[in-house]
Each structure stands twice: as structure tokens, then as C-alpha cells.
């Protein structure tokens, strides 16, 4: 039980700005090694703030554009922008069209490049646009649809972190040092003999926990809209899962073709892409399903 609590505390203190109690040196080291297994729980804090903005805004009639801005900055307020930092580094590297070695150098460079700034601006504009439509639709939705929408949004933040954490544990690492390598010690990657690698993955408790979290989250996401929704909205969860799967497949291809391995920056990039595309898909499905009807 102590290991579980230390992992949760280290995950929250590492990946969010939420104050956590200080652990002993031994407990902190143990918690840090297992923090990725608790990483999806950090998404629940983002989801709570996200839904709080939507619900309170619907009650007190906050203008949709103000809601959109608040929804866009909500994840940054919770996480401190740690994932956006990785997103910027990766966009800077990919946009350089240089060799793999040079791309890795660009990601390690503490200076911010022009491509990173432009990519961040585009990302935030797209997220604001999605959030605006989200605010408009949530304000006119029937109560049953609001429940489905709130559940789906929560699971987007949860499942995105499951995918990001699993990618860190299972994909080959770019470097032997760094956060990604430190947190995935004692596990075999997909590189090397396949049977031994798969056995090593299955034997790792962190991978088993993350897979369990992802499976449960996916089942809930697929089942709840189907049971509560009507028409197209019944399939909202299935559609979301299909899009999420495509995002993950595309990310793995980028990691292998552009870099040959993963690091913390790429994991952050994965999460940012996952959240933006999934929230956009949820909003589009809600619109097609008839908005507030």
C-alpha cells in the first residue's frame, strides 16, 4: 500500500503543480520508479478543472469565448505546461527536416526555435476553437447528453496519459539518461528478440497496471454512451476509441521513422496531440448528433 501511495504522490508532484506531501528519500525513489503507473490519475485533475469551467459557466452564463480561453489554459494551470514544452521541442525538431542526430540535438537545446513558437500558436488556436464549440454545445445540451459529454471528456484526459505512459515503457529509448529512461528502468523494449521483449513487458507491474487502466477506461467510454445515448451519440465512445487508436498508431510511426526511439519530449507531444484530436472528435460527434436536441 505504501508503494501505491508513494507512486501516486510522485506522479502528481512530477506531472502537475498540485502540492503534495514530502516523502522520505527511499519512498520518493521507489515512487518515482512506479510513477508512470499512476500517471493517468493526473488526467483526472485536468478533467475536474475542465468540467468545472463548463458546468459553472453554464450556470452563470459566462461568454463562450471566455470559456474557450479558460478551457484552453486549464491543462496548463494543472500541469505547469510540462507536456506543451515537449510538444514544442518535437515540433522544432521535426520541422527542421534534419538527420536523426540533429533532431535529438534540437530537442535537447534549451533555446526556443521559431518552429516551436509557431507550432505552439497553432496548437493553442486550434484548442481554443475546439473549446469554443465545446462550450457552445455544452450550454445547449440536454442533461443526459451532458453526462455523456462529461464522461467522455474525463476519459480523454485519462486515456491520453495511459497511452503516453505505455509508449515510454514499451518503445525503445532515445537516450540512456533522462526522465523517460529513468522511469522505464528494468523493462525490455520492443527492440531486440521479440519473445523475450514481450515477456519482459508482461512481467512488469507498471505495464500491467497501465493496460488494466486503459482497458477499463476504454470499456467505460464505449459502453456508457451506448447505454445512455440516442442515435449517433450512442456510438460516440466507439468513434472516439477508433480515432484514439489512429492517433497512437500515427505517433508510433513518427517515433520510429523520425527519431528511432522515445524520450520525455515525445511522450508530451503524444499527449498534446491525443487530447486535441480527441476533444475535436468529441465536439464534432456532439454537433452531428444534434447538439442540444
Give a short summary of the structure:
This protein has helices spanning 2-15, 25-60, 64-79, 82-94, 100-108, 114-140, 143-170, 179-183, 194-203, 205-228, 236-259, 264-288. Helix content is 79%, strand content 0%.
What does this protein look like?
The protein is mostly helical and 293 residues long. It has one domain. The chain is 79% helix and 0% strand. The chain is built from twelve helices and no strands. The longest helix has 36 residues. The N and C termini lie far apart (47 Å). About 4% of the residues have low confidence.
Largest sheet: none
Run of helices and strands: HHHHHHHHHHHH
Q: What's the β-strand tally?
A: 0
| Estimated structural class | mainly alpha
Secondary structure: helix percent: over 70%
Kindly, what is the distance between the CA atoms of the first and last residues, rounded to a whole number of angstroms? Answer: 47 Å
What ranges have pLDDT less than 50 throughout 5 or more consecutive residues?
189-200
Q: What is the strand content?
A: under 5%
- The Cα radius of gyration reads 19 Å
Q: Report the average pLDDT across residues.
A: 86
How many structural domains in the coordinates?
Answer: 1
Shape: globular
Number of helices: 12
Features:
293 residues; mainly alpha; 12 helices; 79% helix; 0% strand; globular
Amino acid at each position: 500500500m505504501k508503494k501505491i501511495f508513494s507512486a501516486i504522490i510522485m506522479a502528481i508532484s512530477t506531472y502537475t503543480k498540485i502540492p503534495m506531501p514530502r516523502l522520505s528519500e527511499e519512498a520518493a525513489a521507489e515512487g518515482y520508479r512506479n510513477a508512470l503507473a499512476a500517471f493517468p490519475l493526473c488526467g483526472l485533475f485536468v478533467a475536474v478543472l475542465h468540467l468545472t469551467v463548463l458546468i459553472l459557466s453554464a450556470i452563470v452564463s459566462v461568454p463562450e469565448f471566455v470559456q474557450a480561453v479558460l478551457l484552453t489554459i486549464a491543462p496548463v494551470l494543472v500541469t505547469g505546461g510540462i507536456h506543451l514544452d515537449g510538444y514544442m521541442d518535437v515540433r522544432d525538431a521535426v520541422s527542421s527536416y534534419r538527420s536523426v542526430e540533429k533532431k535529438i540535438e534540437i530537442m535537447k537545446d534549451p533555446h526556443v526555435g521559431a518552429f516551436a513558437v509557431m507550432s505552439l500558436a497553432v496548437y493553442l488556436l486550434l484548442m481554443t476553437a475546439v473549446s469554443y464549440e465545446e462550450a457552445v454545445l455544452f450550454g445547449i445540451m440536454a442533461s443526459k447528453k451532458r453526462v455523456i459529454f462529461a464522461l467522455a471528456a474525463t476519459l480523454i484526459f485519462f486515456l491520453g496519459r495511459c497511452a503516453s505512459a505505455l509508449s515510454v515503457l514499451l518503445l525503445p529509448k532515445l537516450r540512456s539518461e533522462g526522465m523517460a529512461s529513468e522511469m522505464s528502468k528494468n523493462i525490455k523494449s520492443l527492440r531486440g528478440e521479440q519473445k523475450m521483449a514481450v515477456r519482459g513487458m508482461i512481467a512488469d507491474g507498471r505495464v500491467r497496471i497501465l493496460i488494466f487502466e486503459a482497458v477499463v477506461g476504454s470499456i467505460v467510454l464505449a459502453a456508457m454512451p451506448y447505454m445512455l445515448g440516442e442515435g449517433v451519440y450512442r456510438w460516440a465512445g466507439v468513434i472516439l476509441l477508433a480515432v484514439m487508436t489512429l492517433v497512437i498508431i500515427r505517433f508510433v510511426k513518427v517515433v520510429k521513422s523520425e527519431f528511432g526511439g522515445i524520450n520525455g519530449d515525445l511522450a508530451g507531444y503524444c499527449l498534446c496531440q491525443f487530447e486535441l484530436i480527441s476533444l475535436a472528435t468529441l465536439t464534432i460527434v456532439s454537433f452531428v448528433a444534434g447538439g442540444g436536441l
